[in-house]
Amino acid sequence: MREAATLLLAGLCFGASQQIVVRELVSLLYGEEVVLLVVSAAALAAASLGYQLGGRLSPRALARLLLACGALLLLSPALPRFAVAGLCLLRGDSGPELLLVLAVLTFAAAAPFTAIVPALLDRHDEPADRLAALRRGYTAELLGFGLGSAAALALGSAPGLRFAVLAAALVGLVHAAIGRPLVTVACTIAAAIACATHLPLSRLGADLVYRHKHQIAGAEVVWSVDSPYQRVEVVTAPGRGRMLYLDGLRDLDDRDLGTLNHYLARAPAGLVRPARALLVGNGTLSMVPELSAMSDHLTTVEIDAAVVDAGARFFTPGEPLARLANWRLVLADGKQFLAATDERFDLIAVDLPSPLTLGEAYLHTREFYALCRARLRPGGVLAVQLSGRLGAPTRTPARLVASLRAEFPAVVVVDSESAERAFAYASDALPFTLDALRAAAAPGERGLQLVADEELERKIAGAAPLTLDDLDLVLRRGAERLRERYF
């Protein structure tokens, strides 16, 4: 029973610490697909190393490893945040030494817990006893891992409570594995102090990361939660207003919203006059008030409730939205919603992050655009923001336009200097002229280029569409950005 309890608690600590630490490291290193792969590989390597160590370390050495790594986890996430901010401050920029933080933290979050199974097996000499112990122990560990992971995911919006669960599990594991009352008492006191100081130290560490790693003077994190999909943070800074970050990557700045919303929603809606409109993404809901006023009915589809919550709290007041009779919010994956719905729309506006992960990239593929086209009414328009200005055929904007051109007969690109990005409008037959589109430019637009027909074909010559079988852009861009930041 003691072995089973020890392994159950070890699995619980392993599952909870993995969820917390992986999300922390992904956010610190910026959550592109390549970073997700690197962090996941490091976590698996640390778990494998723990299994190797368990059969080789003496009971005393294993107890010391557990206590040392438990102490590191009680100092997380404040410790890695302070370490990353301090290294960036000393260096003046990011460097490869930040990857050492990844290695140390992934080891602490996995190795001592996976080492316990082989260590306990060594207590059994008979093969039949070892096999029975392995079955019982591994079952208990897997059950604990599931419980710990589920608890960490469910409590992502309550980081203090989530940390308290991990701290309590660590104390329980130390008591079950070591069995020395004085050690248990000392660990309980340390865990209580860690829980009491967790939130203020974590907030200070987050502020310092944005000030020194992101290099935003006076940055302050005013809201941070871990959803099942990503870390959602709202950051403020003098002269910058509010900014939304997803897994450490800036999604938007509230100074950008006016121009972004104009070209993605206001301009096409003014030209199309949609009876039914659909927003895919736009979790801040900033387009909803105006677009609902310009259409008979508006549907917003957003996968992450935490982003919607951040939008209602900091970017678009939730109370006026609740009074909109012609708007509905659907919490769902955009592609699944479009595949399942029988509705047809006059305007579909896609406001999504740049394709830096495979999940996001799917919503920028030729297949997704074909699905959008199938849900448009005759004369309907798809509006897409291209995550940058139209440039080289190997870069994201050109490849997204190539994906649109592969599915739509008519595509026009609006390249806005004020928005510092381009937008594309696609249709079977665009229901407006280029002159009408030029006349719909944002107030104060510094420079606007409209690119269509032969000129557009020349601009995207050589650009390969993004497809489900060709998402090389995601890994290539992620590898480039990882190399530029840290090497």
Description:
- The chain is of the alpha/beta class.
- The protein contains 20 helices and twelve strands.
- It has helices spanning 2-29, 33-54, 59-74, 78-91, 98-114, 116-121, 127-154, 159-178, 181-212, 257-272, 288-293, 305-315, 318-322, 334-340, 358-362, 366-374, 396-407, 434-439, 453-459, 472-486, and strands at residues 220-226, 231-237, 241-246, 249-253, 276-281, 297-302, 327-331, 345-351, 376-385, 410-416, 421-427, 448-452.
- The strands form two sheets. Strands 7-6-5-8-9-11-10-12 form an eight-stranded mixed beta sheet, with helices on both faces. A four-stranded antiparallel beta sheet has the order 1-2-3-4, sandwiched between helices.
- Helix 1 runs antiparallel to helix 2, helix 2 (33-54) crosses helix 5 and helix 16 packs across helix 17.
- The mean pLDDT is 93.
Q: In brief, what are we looking at here?
A:
It comes from Nannocystis radixulma. With 487 residues, the chain is an alpha/beta fold.
In terms of per-residue confidence, which ranges show pLDDT below 50 for 5 or more consecutive residues? none
Widest sheet: strand ordering: 7-6-5-8-9-11-10-12
Roughly how much helix do the residues carry, as a percent range?
A: 55-70%
According to DSSP, the number of beta strands is 12
Mean pLDDT: 93
Rounded to an integer in angstroms, the radius of gyration calculated over CA atoms is 26 Å
Determine the structural class based on helices, strands and strand pairing: alpha/beta
InterPro entries: PABS, SAM-dependent_MTases_sf, Spermi_synthase, Spermidine_synt_N_sf
Main location: membrane
Keywords: Cell membrane, Membrane, Polyamine biosynthesis, Spermidine biosynthesis, Transferase, Transmembrane, Transmembrane helix
Protein name: Polyamine aminopropyltransferase
